[in-house]
């Protein structure tokens, strides 16, 4: 039989249980949302492995990993050195 | 065991295990909550004894999560293992949340029983230091752009924080504290009244299953995130 009458300690028992439930629910929701987000993104990239699939607005890590974009050697040669 | 250090094998092994852990955690939390409000009030503490069923499991798994973080940090630092680094990172947030819950619910239990929300005794202070180690770990990781450097710096901090775990555990034996000494696993102590054992152990198992589910899910997410970053980098290079 449940005993839900916490008198005179209701102001201590219910916040302890309530905040615990909220935090555990928030942790669960965050884990599930993040899991779905990266699962979906990985599936998208693996399904379409063309360079156009890379969203260049988002992958700051990717850009920092490969450094600034360099001009192709052929193009530099075509312009020639300035005198 | 070491075979699981391969990310592909880890994903294959934990794929079917993770939903089982989520289900187990939900079931145990439901049963544990029901049992916690079914037992009679304590003859001395009244209904505040029910705070124990959320306070102690949060504290135990807050410590357990840090042990997982520390051991993973060791493997990440010594063997430069990416999965160990992901495991350390994944343990930080649930561990910090559990420790924060232990501090918050302990404060709510302390006020009616001790007459104070907080006291700077050894147990409470060392648990606060544990929480600060979690915050420091997460802040350090977030503050360095290079993920490898961030992982190594955070792993060093994670290892240093391991020193605090025995201090938390034995603080009630080494110093005079307002916090009660260990009573459940201490031989010869009066221990917990048998009527409270079922809800206590169920909630302890529930928090453990929930931490395992959160941890495994976060490691799996981290593996996928790193794979996405690698693919994006490769595609950006090709473009």
UniProtKB/TrEMBL annotation, chain A:
One of its GO terms (biological process) is cytochrome complex assembly. The chain crosses the membrane at residues 12-33. One of its GO terms (cellular component) is plasma membrane. It comes from the Bacteria. Residues 44-83 are annotated as: Disordered. Keywords: Cell inner membrane, Cell membrane, Cytochrome c-type biogenesis, Membrane, Transmembrane, Transmembrane helix, Transport. It is a single-pass membrane protein. It holds the Pfam family CcmD. This is Heme exporter protein D. It comes from Brevundimonas intermedia. The lineage of its organism: Bacteria, Pseudomonadati, Pseudomonadota, Alphaproteobacteria, Caulobacterales.
Automatic annotation (TrEMBL), chain B:
The keyword Cell inner membrane applies. Required for the export of heme to the periplasm for the biogenesis of c-type cytochromes. Its main location: membrane. It is a multi-pass membrane protein. InterPro entries: Cyt_c_assembly, Cyt_c_biogenesis_CcmC, Cyt_c_biogenesis_CcsA/CcmC. Residues 32-179 form the Cytochrome c assembly protein domain. One of its GO terms (cellular component) is plasma membrane. This is Heme exporter protein C. It is found in: Cell inner membrane; Membrane. It holds the Pfam family Cytochrom_C_asm. The chain crosses the membrane at residues 20-39, 59-79, 91-110, 122-140, 152-175, 195-219. Belongs to the CcmC/CycZ/HelC family. GO terms for biological process: cytochrome complex assembly. GO terms for molecular function: heme binding; heme transmembrane transporter activity. Keywords: Cell inner membrane, Cell membrane, Cytochrome c-type biogenesis, Membrane, Transmembrane, Transmembrane helix, Transport. It comes from Brevundimonas intermedia.
